[in-house]
Fold UDP-N-acetylglucosamine 1-carboxyvinyltransferase.
Amino acid sequence: MQKILIEGGHPLNGKVRISGAKNSAVALLPAAILADSAVTIEGLPNISDVETLSDLLEEIGGTVSRQDNNITIDPANMVAMPLPNGKVKKLRASYYFMGAMLGKFGKAVIGLPGGCFLGPRPIDQHIKGFEALGATVTNEQGAIYLRAEELRGARIYLDVVSVGATINIMLAAVRAKGKTVIENAAKEPEIIDVATLLSNMGAKIKGVGTDVIRIEGVPSLEGCTHTIIPDRIEAGTYAIAAAAQGEEVIIDNVIPQHIESLIAKLREMGVTVEDGDEQLLIRPGKTFKSVDIKTLVYPGFPTDLQQPFTSLLTKAEQTGVVTDTIYSARLKHIDELRRMNAIIKVEGGSVIVSGPSQLEGAKVKASDLRAGAALIVAGLMANGVTEITGVDHIDRGYEQITEKLSELGARIWREEMTDEEIIQLQNS
Ligand code: EPU
């Protein structure tokens, strides 16, 4: 087990290239189950969530071959193997095996997913969708059992705008008989990416990117090659890091429109952000104005950038208020930032950050993926050395984060943890 160490205060300069989108990747891989021939996905990020899903595809009989960042999945020998335990528990997105296997085989057994603890993360809307399509869904000893004699298109209104439910229902509906309409659908770019893959496979989908998605089921889907979109959350994380500790940083392979809400907030703070076709240039000023942020569904400010942005706010004059309307309990980074000298409190469900404060290096723990990103941003700004444990969370979602930041001039490195440190971490 490793920890990440950062000696803060060194300026960031140069160019960083953004990898393929994690939250697309974790849906595109299971989507390949639906095809009858090989699907190649190009530009996947090299992160542990992708490895885990590739292993799961192999567990159900898929042939998975990897070349650099491209993965080919041949589903020819896949079977409806139950996956009640094991690797499905390692990440949230294993729930996409439900929609994909239901669509392909008419049945699936999938253990309830794991992933970051962000407060309650129900999947009732996924289940509502599967049932509307004609599936019987039961929860038996922590695994979801799905069965359908025949999937039939249906009109499904999502009570909550959900990325996962929208994609999962889409996965099942593309091979259902007849027409499905998903109302109050999520509009995130990752949903468009998954729909693009499915359409290339032969699915008939209209309206993605709006809140009404219409799907005409088809009897079979074929393999194809698909290139993944860049990771808007990784791009946003580097933009925040560049604002926090950069002189001039270019973020390459980004679709600026995907993070317009972040760019607007950075500009409000006084950071210069220039956008090109696939690049962003970030140049912070000497001082930062505080801003308030409220996370919302896309295109609002993403919940996944709330935690790293909170670290940046410690550098701003006066008080900024952060409210997460998607995951109100996504607050595990707060105590750790306080350990680093941040003046920060939680009041009435919002995080209040007073600044500017000079952060100090400390021993801190990443308890979820984006909390880890927040602590890295804080470590870059802090005096002295910050030691971050819980690195496996970070490696689930950021490809080569220590290498990419080192290239930009950060003093950041990994060390193996001692047995004593591992025991301490497990008990904390
Ligand atoms: N919700 C329900 N019922 C459901 C589904 C969701 O009440 O059946 C609620 C959730 O509790 C939450 C809101 O709806 O309050 C939105 O949840 P959503 O379903 O959109 O989240 P998700 O699909 O489980 C994905 C990303 C998250 C990201 C959220 C919101 C993946 C694998 N995960 O989760 O990414 O925070 O959308 O944008 O795509 C991350 O990358 O760090 C991460 C956690």
